[in-house]
UniProtKB/TrEMBL annotation, chain A:
This is Branched-chain amino acid permease (Azaleucine resistance). Keywords: Membrane, Transmembrane, Transmembrane helix. Pfam families: AzlC (PF03591). It comes from the Bacteria. The chain crosses the membrane at residues 20-41, 53-75, 81-106, 144-169, 175-192, 199-216, 222-241.
Automatic annotation (TrEMBL), chain B:
Keywords: Membrane, Transmembrane, Transmembrane helix. It comes from the Bacteria. The chain crosses the membrane at residues 12-34, 46-65, 77-93. This is Branched-chain amino acid transport.
Length: 246, 116
């Protein structure tokens, strides 16, 4: 499927543009990565004793895989609401620059801020990546509708994946259940590694992994935050040191 | 699974809202509101992104080191081995997420089968 040319009558209504956005989910490998990731999140929610409705609501209203994993894992391992909220808040800061950089692609001189609220909600790493790829092929005045279609399509895929993963975890043998749960760390490890373009990102990822088991020995209740802030700050230090020397 | 189990209790949904929904939407709406004035390459954002990446890395490590549910039935060596084997495949296949995930899964399942 190729998108119609910019001057085609196929772009004449916002509904048609929504439809093109919806269909564009078939044009990216990231849809499959999301499906697998959310399959894992559904299974993880089941095995940490959250309800199916809870898992689906987290996908609909949080719509950020890493935040959902952090929330489920920390709450499931006995952290307080405050501790989880802090960890999630810090992980979610990366949405801020994404929204800042993606919305100008959809804005026209007459666009009102409230017209962009839903697009801002749909913004997460996958949509952000795909917007940079697809939006240059979409007429500017139809981009918001296109993004709504693309986002709704991706959310729907993830809701189905959550449900499938939840029931698989409930009904599969222990070994296959373990395989579904293992999807989460693997897909996040490799998608984060793939998105790591700068040295600071790589150092943060590697140090973050190896410092966590050390931080966990302190059993402070905020182990994830301790290892995250220490590893992240060291990674920033490496970045700063390279900048100074350059 | 009964209908009531699928729905769960409302307290859990309140926790989801407080610790999950609000912390995410705050940043999106701030991005919407203050869009124009922030430099994407600013030093503060570099630090923030590094800490956010390291927190996610910690969670990945937590799932592998202190596994939840059925994953706890997999011996340590197979969980660590699966992540390591997946990483090698990921790097060899020129950063293919798929190669990494599939290799890790196959390693774990083959190991389980071999150990009996």
């Amino acid at each position: 499927m190729a998108l119609p040319p910019l001057d085609s009558p196929q772009w004449n209504s916002p509904w048609l543009a929504f439809g093109w956005g919806l269909r564009s989910i078939t044009q990216t490998i990231l849809t499959i990565v999301l499906f697998v990731t959310y399959l894992g999140i559904g299974a993880l929610a089941h095995d940490t004793h959250f309800s199916l409705l809870w898992a689906l609501c987290s996908t609909l209203f949080v719509w950020a895989g890493p935040a959902q994993i952090i929330l489920i894992t920390t709450l499931g391992s006995g952290a307080t609401i405050i501790q989880s909220a802090i960890a999630v808040t810090v992980s979610a800061i990366r949405l801020f620059p994404m929204v800042v950089s993606v919305l100008p692609l959809m804005r026209t001189p007459t666009t009102k801020r409230r017209e962009l609220v839903f697009a801002a909600h749909l913004t997460a790493v996958t949509l952000w990546v795909e917007c940079h790829r697809f939006l240059p092929l979409v007429p500017r005045e139809r981009r918001i509708a296109f993004v709504h279609g693309l986002g709704c399509g991706l959310v729907s895929v993830c809701l189905v994946a959550n449900t499938v993963g939840y029931f698989l975890a409930a009904n599969l043998t222990q070994t296959l259940g373990a395989a579904i749960l293992l999807l989460t760390p693997l897909s996040f490890l490799f998608s984060t590694a793939r998105n790591s373009r700068e040295v600071a990102d790589v150092v943060a990822l590697v140090l973050g992994i190896f410092l966590y088991p050390l931080a966990a020995k302190m059993s402070s209740g905020v182990d994830i935050l301790v290892s995250g802030v220490v590893a992240g700050t060291i990674a920033y230090g490496v970045h700063w040191w390279r900048e100074v020397r350059a | 699974m009964s209908f009531a189990q699928a729905i769960g209790d409302w307290q859990a949904l309140v926790v989801l809202f407080v610790a999950g929904v609000v912390p995410n939407q705050i940043w999106r709406m701030l991005g919407l509101w203050f869009g124009g004035g922030i430099d994407e390459g600013s030093e503060l954002l570099v630090w923030v992104r590094a800490v956010a990446t390291a927190i996610l890395a910690g969670v990945i490590a937590q799932i592998v080191v202190e596994p939840p549910g059925a994953l706890a039935s997999v011996p340590d060596v197979l969980r660590y081995g699966a992540a390591a084997a997946g990483l090698v495949a990921f790097l060899l296949a020129r950063r293919s997420i798929f190669a990494g995930v599939v290799t890790g899964e196959v390693f774990m399942l083959a190991g389980k089968w071999w150990l009996g």
